[in-house]
Structure formats: C-alpha cells, structure tokens
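Mods, move this if it's the wrong board.
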Amino acid sequence: MARPALTGDGNDRSSDVRGQANSQGNRGGQANPQGNRGGHANSQGDRGGQANSEGDRVSESQVSKRRLFGIDRSGPPPQATHTDQPWRPWTIPNLIGYARLALIPVFLAVALSSEDGQDALAVALFAIIGWADYLDGFAARLTGQYSRLGALLDPLVDRLLIIAGMVVAWHFSLLPRWALAVVVAREVFMLVLSRYALRRGVELQINWPGRLGVAPTMGAPFFAMAGLHWLAVIMLYVGLALSLSATVLYVRRGVRELRARHPQGSSSA
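Not the wrong board. Structure tokens:
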C-alpha cells in the first residue's frame, strides 16, 4: 500500500516539474515576441537615425550654400580677420581687391573726360568695380582664404569707389550737391574713424544698416551716370539714411568698447 503512495508522489513531482517547465517555456515564448518587437523598434530607430543624419547633411549643405552666396551672415567673423592675425596679402580675394583699387583712377579719368558724365565706358567700369565687391567675398567664402588685409581692403575700396562716383556726380551736377557733400563727408569720416579705431585696438565690425546701405549708395552715381535720374535720387536718399544710421551705431559701439578697455572711473577710484 506504500508503493502506490510513492508512485503518486513521484507523479505529482514530475507533473509539477513539467508544469513549471511549460510555464517557463510560455514565458520564454512571451519574451521572444517582445524581443522581436524590440528588434523591430531598434531597426526603426536605426532607420530614423539614418534619416536624421541624412537630414543633417542636407541642412548643412543648405546652410553652406546660404553662407557661400552671402545670404547667411550669422556667427562671428573668421579667425583669420582678427587684429592679431597675419596680413596674408597674396590671396585670391585680395588680388580681386587690388584689381578693383587699380580700376578706380581709370574710372575717374574716363568719366571726368566725358562731355556730360554719362559715358558708357565709365558706367561699365563703375559697375565692374562695384559688382566685384561681391566676387571677392564669394571667393573668400569658397576658398576659405580670409585674411586681415582683406577685411580692411574691402571696405576701403568700397568707400573710395563711392567717393569717386560722388565726385563725378558733383562735377556734372547729376545729383543734389548737398546730399553728395554729406555722403562724401560721411565716407571720409569713416576712413578717419577706422584708422583711429585700429590704433586703439577697436574692431569696427560692419552692422546691418551699413551693409544694407552700400548697394543704394553705390547705385546712386551709377544710375545717375546711366541717365536714370529719378532712380538715382531715390537710391541716394535711401543710402544716405542707412549710412548715417550705421555711422551712429559705429560711434556708439566704439565708445562703449573704449570705455570697457579703459574704465576711467575704476582707475580714479
């Protein structure tokens, strides 16, 4: 009578073991679908990561194109243009700047020797010198050949070209002389201010009114020499307003930087 009891006890244990094994198998089966789902989620995450990386590459390409064509002007100036950097005179952008500078006296000679200041060759020379300003900036961004000399040469040539155009417009009375005198006085003042700032170690970085004012200020003598007097007058007044606003901002920033570098109040205290 004891033997059946032992057998029954063994059957109960074996059945319990089998039941536990089956339950573990069921849990393993449940784990496998979860693992499969996890693997599926990981693969989707990988595809999402690849899509994000592709999107990043596309956005970087778009940003580089915007910066290349001068649309995106965000961020600090290039390191090579800082005051403590070498001049690097022999770069492609600087060669373009030298050519622009050399053509200004040629333009003046041709324009002032004409009968009425509206000579086609003089107009073409002025346009070439003016548009080459965008060419040297494009070349600098394309090649990465930024330089300290280029940062100073480019605005210098722009101001000399504006003064040359205003001289021609004044000589032939193509535009209101009072406005021409204000523009020339402003450009000469900026040349003196830039030189003074350099001696003091102050960086006069171009601001947005100054950047926007270059095109209409250059366009005024160009359209005047081209015979479009009404458009030249509009350009002159718009450029004058932007240029004067930029000058105020330049002076305010320069004074602020000088005070920050040489705080008189703290030194006297």
